[in-house]
Amino acid sequence: MKLGRLNHIGVATPSIADSIAHYRDVMGATHITEPFDLPEQGVKVCFVDTPTESGMNGTQIELIEPYDENSPINGFLAKNPAGGQHHVCFEVEDIAAAREWFEGQGKRILGPTRIGAHGTPIFFLHPKDMQGILTEIMETPQGEGH
């Protein structure tokens, strides 16, 4: 298994609108996607693109807000009312092979492989097995200029 690039850092927020204003007005972000709902994951999402010198997209910030009262993000926000870093996401070429490899390493996978916000398969690794960091593994998106 070969770990790919850091695709994004997930940031839980009680308000995507307020977070967009922060990244735009305070941090100077110029490319922020429109928020969209992922009800099957219980979140609303948008991405803040970070530029690179080559012009290609760098690592993204994924802003995640609870979709409803059943959202898994609610527990995080109960402990961190202002929001904060929720997870990191790394790309892999083959999601099935990566899942098998992590399972073979004795790492706990949280739930089934499913389609994530980039439209590619993802799964999460338990933070207790990943040095305290909730880790998302995603299959490398095709056609995004990455």
Automatic annotation (TrEMBL):
<dbReference type="GO" id="GO:0004493">
    <property type="term" value="F:methylmalonyl-CoA epimerase activity"/>
</dbReference>
<protein>
    <submittedName>
        <fullName>Methylmalonyl-CoA epimerase</fullName>
        <ecNumber>5.1.99.1</ecNumber>
    </submittedName>
</protein>
<dbReference type="GO" id="GO:0046872">
    <property type="term" value="F:metal ion binding"/>
</dbReference>
<dbReference type="InterPro" id="IPR037523">
    <property type="entry name" value="VOC_core"/>
</dbReference>
<keyword id="KW-0479">Metal-binding</keyword>
<feature type="domain" description="VOC">
    <location>
        <begin position="5"/>
        <end position="140"/>
    </location>
</feature>
<dbReference type="Pfam" id="PF13669">
    <property type="entry name" value="Glyoxalase_4"/>
</dbReference>
<dbReference type="GO" id="GO:0046491">
    <property type="term" value="P:L-methylmalonyl-CoA metabolic process"/>
</dbReference>
<keyword id="KW-0413">Isomerase</keyword>
<dbReference type="InterPro" id="IPR017515">
    <property type="entry name" value="MeMalonyl-CoA_epimerase"/>
</dbReference>
<dbReference type="InterPro" id="IPR051785">
    <property type="entry name" value="MMCE/EMCE_epimerase"/>
</dbReference>
<comment type="similarity">
    <text>Belongs to the methylmalonyl-CoA epimerase family.</text>
</comment>
<dbReference type="InterPro" id="IPR029068">
    <property type="entry name" value="Glyas_Bleomycin-R_OHBP_Dase"/>
</dbReference>
